[in-house]
Amino acid sequence: MTFTKFMDLAFGNLFRFLRDISFRKEERGPLSWAFFGTLLLVLVYGLIMLFSASYVTAYYRFNDIYHFIGPQVIVAVVGVAAMLLISNINYHALRHVYWHLYVLLLVLLVWALFSEDYNGCHRWVYLFGTTLQPSEVAKFAAVLGIALMTDNQYDKRNTLVHGLAVPVAPLLPIFVLLYLEPHNSAILLICMITGTMLVCGGCALRWLPLAAAAGGAGIYLMLTAEGNDVANERLGAWGLMADSGDVDLGWQTTQSLYSIASGGLTGLGIGNSRQKHLWLPEATNDFIFSIVCEELGFLGAVLCIVLFGALIVQGIFIALRSPDYFGAMLSIGITAQVAWQVFCHIGVVTATLPNTGISLPFFSSGGTSLLLLLCEMGVLLSVSRAGNARIRAQQQQSQRELRERLRGGAPSGRTVYRRPQAQ
User: Fold this and answer.
1) Collapsing DSSP states into helix, strand and coil, what is residue 207?
2) Which residue range is the domain that position 317 belongs to?
3) Whole-model pTM?
4) CA distance 335 to 297
5) Does any domain span residue 405?
6) Among 134, 181, 190, which residue's Cα sits nearest to residue 368?
7) Are 107 and 231 in the same domain?
8) 289-314 pLDDT per residue, tens
9) 215-261, pLDDT tens digit by residue?
10) What Å distances lie between residue 404 and 231, 399, 409, 420, 421, CA to CA?
């Protein structure tokens, strides 16, 4: 790469981003209010359950029952505002800042390796009195990168090189750095998002079974490697009979199952959970769905799943209505991220999956995750605006053609019959 090309990539793309950031009037459609309303319901539901699940731990550890919910509400308000702002930005402008985001992500991942560890893992960057989890940025970077590269090579996306190797190659350094943290759940989640996008995007479909087999073998070797103590402990504590005196993860899973079983049909009531009284570790984050089941019962759990299902289905419709391939792939990736996180979180708390430590979107505590998720929802709403604008233009064009036919204008290919005028 020449110096001129490097400068164009580094600075020229920033100017192109600012140039393309605004929608043209005819490209900016109305907001998808159904999706926005569903998202607000999920968000409010999550904040209510987070406060209920967290106030005991917050009072015990910090002598402040609002320690978790207070910052989360502030982030939620800021995130909704950012989401509405981003929904008015032309999502095509994101094409110009992918490599800037990618370089920033690599810097953050390396920084995290030298930061203070938590439970033996280096997953957080401590900055300005708060924490940032680079793996949350990595999820969106993966979505944006795959959408960009498959769109750039749209005509060649059926080939092994352009449909699979080129989109996946930038993920390999990310996987290596995540493995060093270690953060196995983030690697698995990004792999599932990538696979979903490639399948739905029709990329190298002939080669995907072979790639999936190779990826599965690599993940198996990664998780069962002798030096990967974190993964080995989690796999060893997996199952309904995981209770073990010297395995904390088995205790956590068992307490989660006790919590779910205690809820029954209608639950113990909001705020009445017993397991959150320091029996269930990480009740505010990785196991918050257990508290939903205990306090609201089967009905509350079904309501939670139905709301997420409605959000995911509407995300799929936004992808289908997108005016171009890039927008469709962005929508598929963001929707897949939410869907896979919900699936894995519920699978973990019910002992269906090993304890991987994946948060429940919009429910679990964590400002980084919530803010970035809401910003991604803004990108999804931006795609929906463009799709709604195209549908509106098509409807207006159809109405104009119909009026012209009725007035005897341009020939339509078939005869238009009119009532004869009275003499």
Assistant:
1) coil
2) 30-88+264-396
3) 0.89
4) 27
5) no
6) 134
7) yes
8) 999 999 999 999 999 999 999 999 99
9) 888 877 776 766 655 555 665 555 554 544 445 557 788 888 999 99
10) 68, 9, 5, 18, 19
